[in-house]
């Protein structure tokens, strides 16, 4: 499957939305060449006992932004994080978090990306950098990458368009293609 650069960026955005972990975070992401920007709305479900966002949320946003910045250069294979260093510089307990990842170096075997996360006043609250390598898994086998309908369904779930609906998706993998099967299940999501 040959994607244009823009199609590849939109496919990465679909793939990100299709990741089951993002049901909890409900992020938005925009990818361009060597750059990814991710935003989430904060909720108490992300807090530790001192009522501020847990460091794992910082890590997820930083790693994801750096990962997708690196992935913007790789159209054939899924990229993997091999190491990532995180610095939490300021607590946050409300509003939004926005992470911006950029590729700062690349060669035949790896990408080095950095990311900065900001609060909703555009103050830096954390940063990180990581090394990413190409895997052997084709991108077209990743959830949502090659199927725009999959991500539209997932986004509908995130935005509450399928409240009380009787659909879920189970991923069926075959050697050459990925297809999706509808099964009864109840989803209860709030509106975006």
Task: Tell me the number of helical segments per DSSP (H or I, 4 or more residues long).
Answer: 4
Mean pLDDT: 82
Low-confidence stretches: 160-192
The count of β-strands is 8
Structural class: alpha+beta
Elements, N to C (H/E): HHEEHEEEEHEE
Helix proportion range: 10-25%
Rounded to the nearest angstrom, the radius of gyration is 17 Å
Tell me the major beta sheet. 6 strands, antiparallel
Shape: globular
Instruction: Give the DSSP E fraction (strand runs of 2 or more residues).
Output: 35-45%
Spatial sequence of strands, sheet with the most strands: 1-2-4-5-6-3
Distance between the termini: 33 Å
What's the topology here?
Layout: H1 5-18, H2 22-25, E1 28-32, E2 35-41, H3 55-71, E3 77-88, E4 96-106, E5 110-118, E6 124-138, H4 148-158, E7 168-173, E8 178-183
Antiparallel strand pairs: 1-2, 2-4, 3-6, 4-5, 5-6, 7-8
């Amino acid at each position: 499957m040959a994607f244009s650069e823009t199609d590849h960026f939109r496919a990465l955005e679909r793939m990100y939305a299709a990741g089951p972990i993002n049901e909890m975070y409900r992020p938005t992401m925009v990818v361009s060449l060597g750059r990814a920007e991710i935003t989430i709305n904060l909720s108490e479900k992300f807090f530790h006992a001192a009522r501020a966002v847990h460091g794992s949320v910082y890590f997820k946003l930083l790693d994801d932004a750096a990962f997708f910045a690196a992935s913007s250069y790789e159209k054939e294979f899924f990229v993997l994080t091999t190491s990532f260093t995180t610095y939490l510089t300021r607590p946050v307990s409300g509003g939004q978090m926005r992470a911006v990842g950029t590729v700062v170096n690349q060669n035949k075997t790896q990408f080095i990306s950095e990311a900065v996360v900001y609060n909703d006043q555009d103050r830096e609250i954390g940063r990180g950098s990581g090394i990413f390598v190409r895997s052997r898994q084709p991108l077209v086998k990743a959830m949502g990458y090659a199927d725009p309908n999959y991500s539209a369904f997932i986004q509908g779930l995130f935005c509450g368009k399928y409240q009380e609906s009787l659909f879920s998706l189970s991923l069926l993998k075959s050697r050459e293609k990925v297809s999706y099967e509808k099964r009864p299940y109840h989803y209860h999501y709030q509106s975006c």
